[in-house]
Amino acid sequence: MTDAAIALTKTKPRPRRQWAPYLLILPSLLYLAVFFAWPMTRAIRLAVWDETALLTLRQEAAAGSAAAGVLPQGAAVSLLDRRSNLAAEADLSGASLTETWFFVQGLDPGGNAVAGWAPESRIRVRTTDAAGAAIGGTVRPKLGAGADPLTSLYSEPNEGSAIAGKLEGSAAVSIGEQAVLEVWFLIEGEGEGERISGWAPSRVLQVYGDGVSGRIDRGDTGQLTRAYIQRMLNDRFFRPAFYTTLLLIVLIIPVQFALAIIMALVIQARLKFNTLFLAIFAIPLAASDLAVGILWYAIFTQSGYLNSILQALGLIAAPNAFLTADTRYWILIAIWLAEVWRATSIVMVIVVSGLQAISQEVLEAAEVFGATLWQRLRHVILPLLKPSLQVALILRTILALQVFAVVIALSGGDVVTVLANETYRQYYTLRNMNVAAAYAGFILLISMFSAIIYLRMVRSSEEASA
Amino acid sequence: MSEIKIENVTKRFGSFTAVNNVSLTITDHEFMVLLGPSGCGKTTLLRAVAGLGMADEGRISIGGKDVTYLPPRERRISMVFQSYAIFPHMNVFDNIAFGLTMQKLPRAEIQTRVRQAAELLHIEQMLDRYPSKMSGGQRQRVAVARAIAMQSQVLLMDEPLSNLDALLRLEMRAELKRLLAELGATTIYVTHDQIEAMSMGDRIAVMRDGIIEQVNTPTTVYDYPANQFIGGFIGTPPMNFLMGQVQRRDGSVVVQLGDHSVAPKPEMASLLAGYDGKPIILGIRAESMETLASPAGDALMACVLVVEPLGSQNLLTVAFGAHRIKVSTHPSFETRADADVWLRFPADKIRWIDPEAKRTLYPK
């Protein structure tokens, strides 16, 4: 390298960074994050994450106390002790067992005025104010021999606190403020092979009628789980839904592509009523899939158009029942027809735009050099359409995996069912959003899988040719 | 035999008549150039011959066979397109072999013919390349090779060089001419470039507004243009046109250009006599004038406005009276702007043009 050349490389100006493209792409990234990535991860989490899998037991009957051990959801436990605990307002919303304490004032057996906290089990509320809050009552008399006939008042709303005074049974009291306490239990159960005991709030427990046994209703820590996916796989509708979806793809897509290419070629030929053809072909683009399903239902139903026409022509004596559980194949045929009719035009639109991108002179060259219509299609048009066909194929396969409204309209969703319908059923009818999420995730998985396969197919043929 | 006969062909697009009642015969092995400005109908006529846009009226026959309404593939023609129109998804070999493959020729035959065509165009090294990785000139060669591999008797070319840059065009022009002379196919070559037409064609058909204005050899069209349009269209710089007036003086006919008078050739004099007192257009090419640096008896004085030294010649723009004309001189002729020069019009180089019909007058 000469000196001049070295000097040249040293002083070579660095290209200025272009920030505008990054700024322009920012809104789309935000959009993707907020409306796609976030809900998507939430949904996938629903399918594989059990939010209430494990319960941490506490050494003391308080939320902040040290952990004593972990028990899984559903573990059987025995209840050893019980304590009421002042709980934060927010925590109480899910509490199943609560205890109200009253701050009461009255006269003790010695005639001295005493004030302190007593649980609701010791105070009978007699008067309430206009808003329904307790303002006065009497102390419940204690029954049974040997018991202390006096009721203790505590300085805090807690049986462990100091006794502020004692009241006789039936003594009149005025009630001041109230405190709601949550009941905690000291429980013992089997976890990971050893017996673990500790305190847990009542809200996470199911207490059986005997008062000494129960089970852990829900945990407070999440854990990865295969349970929802397993439940989806074990669902008796899973296999029929999966197979029907695949069957519909195999039946619909090849026919759609053949029709779409023919339609696109008709349009490309610029015949006399070209715009009319295009309008007719494109009408289904504007129809909602549910409307299309209902339309085809109107054709195939027992008193529908098809039966009416066949009867009017004298071809059948009585209406055929097409859409019944016994004639499942008729339902499939109706779905097939409806989907082909509905979604072929979107493929056609893509193919037409692909055709228009092919240079007119290239097509003419094929014609001049002796290619027949079929040869032109096979050797020139289809190879040049490959990118458009690939886009259409990915789009159509993904949409076919989501087929739903047409199936619902024609079969009600029971006789013939598809994956999207099962997602819906799990979510709305069975109220099981975790399994619904597993179904949705499954659809996502096979959509991505098919898209990757299509992309690979085209790329490998490009590599082979390059 | 593959004579192409175009008889009274008309082609309309809506209300626009692109080709208007055109007749033209291209003899066997002839190289015919269709020349004209854009929109003159030359490509439309070529496409009618190719079968890519059927004629509305008239008859086209190739080698005696009526092909007017036959599809392109039944006409036994091959064609080179303006945009080359090579297949982007095929490599060079498959592109050249396309027509042969469509005819389902044996593999060995295709191999030899593709190789021959590729060698003729010096692209035998790139048979497995794809068009996207080739330059314009190389694609052009592929398009020509594809056409000649067909070995058809008729070759149609639609502005094949117009998408190349100037230097490459010059090179390809000569090469195409050599190649086509070797092949001997009957060729129709469409171009709007008059230099291309002059240098390549056996005959030139000059078209304007859907009509063929003149068909003849390049030198004839150049020297004896049929009308003012052709004189102005062909040649760089175009023919100069000066408006004069015919006057009969002392029994002889002269044309008055301002205060200078020009005497026509004797055989023209009788023709011009009919224009006595009327205006007439004098056409003369830049290189046909004699330029003198000093006054001479019958020379016309003009003032130099611009001098353009072009190496092989000096191109002067000169003015006399209200006229501005281009004059080309030998490069050794020295002059400068604002200097005076004296021009002489040789009588046999002057073309006389009827100012109304714009047709050139020739003696019977």
Q: Could you give the topology of this structure?
A:
The complex is a heterodimer of chains A (466) and B (364).
Chain A: H1 3-10, H2 20-48, E1 49-58, E2 67-72, E3 76-86, H3 89-92, E4 98-107, E5 113-119, E6 123-128, E7 134-139, E8 151-154, E9 163-167, E10 172-191, E11 194-201, E12 205-207, E13 213-216, E14 221-224, H4 227-234, H5 238-268, H6 274-286, H7 289-300, H8 305-312, H9 328-357, H10 360-368, H11 373-401, H12 405-411, H13 419-429, H14 433-465
Antiparallel strand pairs in A: 1-2, 1-14, 3-10, 3-13, 4-5, 4-10, 6-7, 7-10, 8-9, 10-11, 12-13
Helix pairs in contact in A: 2-14, 4-14, 5-9, 5-11, 5-13, 6-9, 7-9, 7-12, 9-11, 9-12, 10-11, 11-14, 13-14
Chain B: E1 4-13, E2 16-26, E3 31-35, H1 42-50, E4 57-62, E5 65-66, E6 77-80, H2 92-102, H3 107-120, H4 136-149, E7 154-158, H5 166-183, E8 186-191, H6 194-200, E9 203-208, E10 211-216, H7 218-223, H8 228-233, E11 240-249, E12 252-257, E13 260-262, H9 266-273, E14 279-284, E15 290-292, E16 300-309, E17 314-320, E18 323-329, E19 340-344, E20 351-353, E21 360-361
Parallel strand pairs in B: 3-8, 3-9, 6-7, 7-8
Antiparallel strand pairs in B: 1-2, 1-4, 4-5, 9-10, 11-12, 11-14, 12-13, 14-20, 15-19, 16-17, 16-19, 17-18, 20-21
Helix pairs in contact in B: 2-3, 2-4, 3-4
